[in-house]
Design a protein that fits this description.
Enzyme class: lyase
Bound molecules: adenosine-5'-triphosphate, magnesium ion
Protein name: phosphoribosylaminoimidazole carboxylase
Helix content: 25-40%
Distance between the termini: 50 Å
Mean pLDDT: 94
Strand content: 15-25%
Shape: globular
Structural class: alpha+beta
Keywords: ATP-binding, Decarboxylase, Lyase, Nucleotide-binding, Purine biosynthesis
Number of strands: 18
EC number: 4.1.1.21
Radius of gyration: 21 Å
Number of helices: 14
GO molecular function: ATP binding; metal ion binding; phosphoribosylaminoimidazole carboxylase activity
């Protein structure tokens, strides 16, 4: 059924009330996973209707968005979808950027952030070239189109170094750590061959991984959220802690670096900026996501305005909300599938039950169909008035996760 707002939109050619807000706003999101779901839940609270385009018939976002079944890499599906929206955005960067650009031109619908930004970011090598050209500090990197280039990368970077897929990478799928000379050829094979599009990166001997959410308004102003520490397990985000336990000058340098990276991209919305903190205190950018990000989930309960709310505000051209922390410390624990099927559900429920009986803890469940190992199925945000209190609360839910932060 068509949401009432979309019906009203057809009768209201101006869309804008006296207060300058659209009377009815339909935001279309390419992708209907958990990020789209949390975006749609935030939008619903602001009276904004969402639609999502996702191939799965049980997309998690459908709980709060009208769901169009279709693929975000299918040009025809994107063109049709665009016609029912006032603004288009994405919850995943692996979409068909050319089709999105054509659909926007044909329908006159705004796309935020711009298809050009998504195109740069979805190719991690193009992203590196872009940021290097804008003076953002990065680990050295090199294109690896063939065996000679691979050999040259090993000679230049030494061992270990990182071999990465340029495209369709997430949760470390697409990365291969080359530890020995023999590993290099294995890495190429594991990542689908040179034809797949590979590049190499110098190893970053980080002491911590940091991340900053940055929201960018339609007029190009950027606003950084607090700097968080991110801890990965098997390449998947596991725990984040805000504020990161780093020196104040490191936190401000990370915030400025993240703002600088986002400032050299076009379009409005929220961006996730991943960084490495090196032993000498310097920072390198790892990668940027043009959408809400796992390292920003804590903002739902730990900040005055969540990353999802600010994304919706930004793409609509509304005033941005305050990104400050609303507590002393906010920790996020991902609920990762620990086993397939019923056993995985049993373990996730045990974790959630402990969270429900812990002060300051909030459960966010994604409603994904089925349960699979190593898959993000939800997260728990834990707030405290101090770092010690938040960590103690986390320890009563998951001692191992608290141990990872200690
Ligand atoms: P995401 O799910 O964040 O999109 P991804 O699949 O794009 O991840 P990366 O962010 O490139 O992968 O890398 C995943 C993790 O691997 C990083 O968070 C970091 O822990 C490690 N890593 C990546 N690049 C390097 C590097 N050059 N040196 C050392 N470790 C690295
Ligand atoms: Mg990535
Ligand atoms: Mg990453």
């Amino acid at each position: 059924k068509q949401p009432a707002a979309a019906d009203a939109r057809a009768d209201d050619p101006t869309h804008v009330s006296e207060a300058g807000l659209p009377r009815t706003a339909v935001v279309g999101v390419l992708g209907g996973g958990q990020l789209g779901r949390m975006m749609a839940l935030a939008a619903a609270n602001m009276g904004v209707s969402m639609r999502c385009l996702d191939p799965a018939d049980d997309a998690p976002a459908a709980v709060a968005a009208r769901h169009d079944v279709g693929h975000f890499r299918d040009a025809d599906a994107i063109a049709k979808f665009a016609q029912g929206c006032d603004v288009l955005t994405v919850e995943i960067e692996h979409i068909d950027a050319d089709a999105l650009e054509r659909a926007a031109a044909a329908s006159g619908v705004d796309v935020e952030p711009t298809p050009a930004t998504v195109r740069i970011i979805q190719d991690k090598y193009a992203q590196k070239i872009h940021f290097a050209g804008n003076g953002v500090p990065l680990a050295d990197f090199a294109d690896v189109p063939d065996a000679a280039a691979l050999e040259a990368a090993e000679g230049r970077f030494g061992l270990p170094f990182m071999l990465k897929s340029k495209r369709l990478a997430y949760d470390g799928r697409g990365n291969f750590v080359v530890r020995t000379h023999e590993d290099a050829a294995r890495g190429v094979e594991a990542l689908g061959g040179f034809g797949h599009g590979l590049y190499a990166e110098r190893w970053a001997p980080f002491v911590k991984e940091l991340a900053v959410m940055v929201v960018r308004s339609r007029d190009g102003a950027v606003l950084a959220y607090p700097v968080v520490e991110t801890i990965h397990k098997d390449n998947i985000c596991y725990v984040t802690e805000a504020p990161a336990d780093v020196a104040p000058h490191t936190a401000s340098a990370a915030a400025r670096a993240a703002e600088k990276a986002v400032a050299c991209l076009d379009g409005a919305g929220i961006f996730g900026v991943e960084m490495f903190l090196l032993p000498d205190g310097s920072l390198l950018l790892n990668e940027v996501a043009p959408r809400p990000h796992n390292s920003g989930h804590y903002t739902q309960d730990g900040c005055l305005t969540s990353q999802f709310e600010n994304h919706v505000r930004a793409v609509l051209g509304w005033p941005l909300g305050d990104p400050s922390l609303n507590c002393g410390c906010s920790i996020m624990l991902n609920i990762l599938g620990e086993a397939e099927g019923d056993e995985g559900v049993r373990r996730a429920h045990a974790l959630m039950a402990r969270a429900y009986s812990t002060r300051g803890a909030k459960v966010h469940w994604y409603g994904k169909p089925g349960m699979r190992a190593a898959r993000k199925v939800g997260h728990i945000n834990v707030s405290g008035s101090s770092r010690a209190e938040a960590r103690a609360r986390l320890a009563s839910i998951d001692p191992a996760a608290a141990g990872a932060l200690a």
